[in-house]
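Exercise 3.2. Students should predict the tertiary structure of the chain below and write it as C-alpha coordinates, then compare their answer with the key that follows.

Predict this chain's 3D structure.
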Amino acid sequence: MAQDPIVAQKGPYQVELTEGKAYFYCTCGHSKKQPFCDGSHADTGLLPLRFVADRSGTFNLCGCKTTDDAPFCDGSHNVL
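Answer key:
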Protein backbone atom coordinates (compact mmCIF):
# COMPACT_ATOMS: atom_id res chain seq x y z
CA MET A 1 0.00 0.00 0.00
CA ALA A 2 1.31 3.44 -0.93
CA GLN A 3 2.07 6.04 1.70
CA ASP A 4 0.45 9.45 1.51
CA PRO A 5 2.74 12.08 0.00
CA ILE A 6 4.26 14.66 2.32
CA VAL A 7 3.97 18.40 1.73
CA ALA A 8 7.35 19.45 0.37
CA GLN A 9 6.43 23.14 0.30
CA LYS A 10 3.19 25.04 0.96
CA GLY A 11 3.25 26.78 -2.38
CA PRO A 12 4.40 26.19 -5.94
CA TYR A 13 7.92 25.86 -7.30
CA GLN A 14 8.58 28.23 -10.20
CA VAL A 15 10.68 26.36 -12.73
CA GLU A 16 11.89 26.84 -16.28
CA LEU A 17 10.82 24.03 -18.59
CA THR A 18 12.01 23.35 -22.14
CA GLU A 19 9.55 22.38 -24.88
CA GLY A 20 9.78 18.69 -25.80
CA LYS A 21 11.92 17.75 -22.80
CA ALA A 22 10.76 14.99 -20.46
CA TYR A 23 10.72 15.61 -16.70
CA PHE A 24 9.98 13.43 -13.68
CA TYR A 25 7.85 15.27 -11.11
CA CYS A 26 8.17 14.12 -7.48
CA THR A 27 4.80 12.86 -6.20
CA CYS A 28 5.97 11.65 -2.78
CA GLY A 29 7.43 14.89 -1.40
CA HIS A 30 10.66 13.25 -0.20
CA SER A 31 12.97 14.35 -3.04
CA LYS A 32 15.83 16.69 -2.17
CA LYS A 33 15.61 18.08 -5.75
CA GLN A 34 12.04 19.39 -5.54
CA PRO A 35 9.89 19.55 -7.52
CA PHE A 36 11.71 16.84 -9.46
CA CYS A 37 12.34 13.22 -8.53
CA ASP A 38 15.68 12.09 -7.09
CA GLY A 39 14.65 8.49 -6.37
CA SER A 40 13.65 9.08 -2.73
CA HIS A 41 10.27 7.46 -3.38
CA ALA A 42 11.81 3.97 -3.30
CA ASP A 43 10.07 2.82 -0.10
CA THR A 44 6.90 4.93 -0.35
CA GLY A 45 4.89 2.95 -2.89
CA LEU A 46 4.58 6.17 -4.93
CA LEU A 47 6.06 6.76 -8.36
CA PRO A 48 7.22 9.96 -10.05
CA LEU A 49 5.04 11.49 -12.76
CA ARG A 50 6.73 11.66 -16.15
CA PHE A 51 5.62 14.58 -18.28
CA VAL A 52 6.83 16.37 -21.40
CA ALA A 53 6.72 20.16 -21.55
CA ASP A 54 4.44 21.27 -24.39
CA ARG A 55 6.17 24.65 -24.55
CA SER A 56 9.15 26.43 -23.04
CA GLY A 57 8.72 28.93 -20.24
CA THR A 58 8.27 29.45 -16.52
CA PHE A 59 5.72 27.20 -14.84
CA ASN A 60 4.38 26.73 -11.30
CA LEU A 61 4.75 23.10 -10.26
CA CYS A 62 2.90 21.86 -7.20
CA GLY A 63 4.87 21.80 -3.95
CA CYS A 64 2.12 20.52 -1.64
CA LYS A 65 1.48 17.34 -3.67
CA THR A 66 -2.33 17.74 -3.46
CA THR A 67 -3.03 19.33 -6.85
CA ASP A 68 -5.70 17.89 -9.13
CA ASP A 69 -3.66 19.06 -12.13
CA ALA A 70 -0.29 17.35 -11.50
CA PRO A 71 2.40 18.38 -11.96
CA PHE A 72 1.02 21.92 -12.13
CA CYS A 73 -0.13 23.99 -9.15
CA ASP A 74 -3.90 24.48 -8.95
CA GLY A 75 -3.94 26.45 -5.70
CA SER A 76 -4.74 23.44 -3.48
CA HIS A 77 -2.09 24.64 -1.01
CA ASN A 78 -4.43 27.51 -0.09
CA VAL A 79 -6.70 25.13 1.84
CA LEU A 80 -4.04 23.16 3.72
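Discussion points: The mean pLDDT is 96. The chain has no helices and four strands.
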